[in-house]
Amino acid sequence: MIGLVGAGHMGSSLGAVLRRGGHEVATSLAGRSRRTAGLVGEAGITVLPHLADVLERAEVVLVVTPPGAARDAARSIAVAATATGARPLIADLNATSPATVADLVGILAEAGLDLVDGSISGPPPLVKPGARIYLSGPRATEVAALSWRDVTPIVVAGPAGAASAVKMSTASVYKGLMGLLAQAMASAEHYGVLDTVMADLGGEFGTPPDVARAATKAHRYVAEMREIASAQAAAGLSGSLFEGFAEVYAAIARSELAAGDPENVSGKLTATEVARGLRVSD
Q1: Which PANTHER family does the UniProt entry name for this protein (predicted)?
Q2: CA of 17: how far to CAs of 22, 25, 37, 193, 211, in Å?
Q3: How far is residue 73's CA from residue 63's CA, in Å, rounded to a whole number?
């Protein structure tokens, strides 16, 4: 059995494609939202009462939470594993810095648990097949060997933290550009030049629906931008750029568009609708 900690839009989608590969997949909905319960039901994922039940039955547990919740998730897993004696392999697939991964390794090791460092590049596979899952650490090949469907596992040479270093670099481009586009659209709409700006950009950096979908996830991108800033600072670079993007996404998280869910965003949204939806209400 494969366990899931965090079965939201991405997690439930990964669970669905693993089920297509023949795995039984289980999660706990304790403390989760009605939306998550709906996504889990649609994916056909088995629901168990508590996290401890998932750990006792699973051979591998995938953790797919918001980046800011990664340490708390690891602590909860460690507590439950200590109480039950369960020792599944843990694969953390969150968008975190190598330094955060090192913390997770330490937290889980205290409970006798091994960690595979992972990161996801691409949309949920039920939305668009083809996401890549980067994996690193001594037991990375065990997670890569699962019967994945519609995603491509890629083992990155190096210790735990290497897969997350990939994510910190790629997400800095993908989500940085989306933050730039959102800022440009909002600014252009304010000055009455939105149509001209969008015509000049020509969709090269994303579309209005892409920005709207990003807005629904802005609350979790704030912590991710700070993880990127930390990773870049540890590499001897300035962390100021992505601290700034954290502020951008924090503002977007207070906008009208942020109240939606990514799976419900219309592909027909216009630039004007999106730009006005990005306005922040004080």
Answers
A1: CYTOKINE-LIKE NUCLEAR FACTOR N-PAC, OXIDOREDUCTASE GLYR1-RELATED
A2: 9, 10, 17, 43, 26
A3: 8
Q: Which of 167, 175, 217, 268 is catalytic?
A: 167
pTM for the whole structure? 0.94
Using DSSP, state whether 272 is helix, strand or coil: helix
Question: N- to C-terminal Cα distance for the chain?
Answer: 47
Tens of pLDDT along 77-86?
999 999 999 9
pLDDT at 149 > cutoff 70: yes
Q: What are phi and psi of 87, to 5 degrees?
A: -135, 55
Whether residue 281 has pLDDT greater than 70: no
Q: Which pLDDT belongs to residue 107? A: 98
> Looking at domain 2-160, which of 3.40.50.12280, 3.50.50.60, 3.40.50.450, 3.40.50.720 is its CATH number?
3.40.50.720
Question: What's the pLDDT score for residue 203?
Answer: 86
Take residue 32 and report the two structure tokens written for it.
């989760």
Which residue type is seen at 72? D
What are the start-end ranges of the E strands in the chain? Answer: 2-5, 25-28, 46-48, 60-63, 89-92, 115-121, 131-136, 151-155
Residue 167 catalytic?
A: yes
